[in-house]
Write a structure and sequence with these properties.
The chain is of the alpha/beta class. The chain has two domains: 201 residues, FAD/NAD(P)-binding domain; 143 residues, D-Amino Acid Oxidase, subunit A, domain 2 (D-Amino Acid Oxidase, Chain A, domain 2). 32% of the residues lie in helices and 30% in strands. The protein contains nine helices and 21 strands. Strands 1, 2, 9, 10, 11, 12, 13, 14, 20 and 21 form a ten-stranded mixed sheet that branches. Strand 10 and strand 11 form a beta hairpin. Helix 1 runs parallel beside helix 7, helix 1 runs parallel beside helix 9 and helix 4 packs across helix 7. The chain is elongated. Flavin-adenine dinucleotide binds next to helix 1, strand 2, helix 2, strand 15 and strand 19. The site of flavin-adenine dinucleotide (FAD) has 44 residues, from helix 1, strand 2, helix 2, strand 15 and strand 19.
Length: 362
């Protein structure tokens, strides 16, 4: 094996791989970040960017704790990225308003909110006036609403632009169009073998999102079985509105709306098991549009919305209810994938955990 050119190779430059690469480089490590396509062009470009344990968690678990811990890291994560990249990130700590359209829904929502309070997710019931204050666009008659004060959102595209600049500023080598086919651990060093040749390093991190399961890993010549990944396709749509029409995330069941500072309003979403099919399905888009416009009829004036899709990185058989973030035993290979619908939220905590472990023992 050739002499290691880097301390760490990271396979996959979405928000997970890029955040890990940046945090390792901050510690003075020499990092090579490889991506099969373009940095941040897959799920991390497609994601809505909700940072919202209030909408995701309803029972205690290590995953619940991890989500809440990652949300707490966000202000510092964004602050450090902005200062190191010299770019601005649209990060809004405006909370989330969850709607109940009838009394049964309101009773169930309040019961869930009580359980969530015990987990560290604060909330309070809102009266109609306060609900309109948070979401002036909302016109639907509602039975009640609960405000999750700590839920936030970020523009993941801003985060990816900042991560590229911060990685480059810290000396990370970014190689795009570089598909990693396999990682060979030969005891003390690893080699990434791919479309553009071979690269060696002290350690490797697999962070290729929904494609992570396609990468083969062997340790001292013995193939290792890795948790298999599955792409879970989702559609989103966006409308161009004047800014400040929605001060909080608004959600009702599987529908959510959030507005970037520029005015761009994102509405979602859908869930399909369709492999890596990139077709935008007009019926699914129409379903999202009609749910969004049912909550906020005024959106109809700003349509038709712009649709797109992305592949959430799912795990075929999750080891826990969260992503797979761990060192492969007896190797210098770390796995950091399977963040499904929470990868934007979980990037700071994942990067901290993996970079701490590699710095301590890699
Ligand atoms: C519609 C939708 C809405 C979402 N909304 C939210 C949300 O509101 N909040 C939230 O927290 N999360 C959300 N998510 C989920 C979030 O976007 C993902 O969990 C997160 O982006 C995953 O990041 P990643 O870096 O693991 O994967 P990706 O961003 O997909 O990055 C993986 C990278 O690996 C590269 N790659 C693939 N194969 C190889 C290879 N063999 N070698 C090298 N590179 C390779 C790819 O080109 C890609 O750039 C949403 C996702 C979708 C699709």
């Amino acid at each position: 094996m050739p002499r290691a050119a880097s301390d760490v190779i990271v396979a996959g430059a979405g928000i997970i791989g890029a955040s890990i690469a940046w945090r390792l480089a901050e510690r003075g490590m020499k990092v090579t970040l490889l991506d099969a396509g373009g940095m941040g062009c897959e799920a991390s470009w497609a994601g809505a960017g909700m940072l919202a344990p209030g909408g995701e968690i309803d029972a205690p678990s290590p995953f619940a704790e991890f989500c809440i811990a990652s949300l707490k890291l966000y202000p510092d994560f964004v602050g450090a990225l902005e200062s190191q990249s010299g770019t601005e990130i649209d990060f809004q700590e405006g909370g989330a308003v969850e709607l109940a359209l009838d009394q049964d829904e309101f009773t169930a929502l309040c019961a869930r909110a009580e359980i969530q309070k015990a987990l560290g997710i604060p909330s309070s019931a809102l009266d109609l006036r306060d609900t309109r204050e948070c979401a002036p666009l909302l016109r639907k008659p509602i039975a009640g609403a609960v405000y999750f004060s700590e839920d936030s959102h970020v523009d993941p595209r801003d985060v990816m632009i900042a991560l590229r600049a911060a990685c480059l500023a810290r000396g990370v080598t970014i190689l795009e169009g570089w598909t990693v086919a396999s990682v060979l651990d030969c005891g003390g060093a690893v080699e990434a073998v791919g479309t553009k040749g071979k690269l060696s390093a002290g350690s490797a991190v697999l962070a290729a999102g929904a494609w992570s399961g396609n990468i083969g890993v062997s340790v001292n010549g013995v193939p290792r079985e890795l948790p298999a990944t599955v792409p879970i396709k989702g559609h989103l749509v966006a409308y161009s509105l004047p800014p400040d029409e929605l001060r909080s995330i608004v959600r009702h069941h599987g529908t959510y709306l959030l507005q970037r500072s520029t005015g761009y309003l994102v509405a979602g979403t859908s869930t399909e098991h369709a492999g890596f099919d990139r077709t935008i399905d007009a019926d699914i888009v129409d379903g999202i549009r009609s749910r969004a416009e049912d909550l906020c009829p005024v959106l109809g004036r700003y349509g038709p919305p712009i649709p797109w899709i992305g592949f959430r990185p799912g795990l075929e058989s999750p080891e826990t209810d969260g992503p797979c973030i761990r060192r492969l035993p007896d190797s210098n290979v770390w796995l950091a994938y399977g963040h499904y619908r929470n990868g934007i939220l979980l990037a700071p905590a994942t990067a901290r955990r993996v970079s701490d472990e590699i710095a301590a023992g890699g």
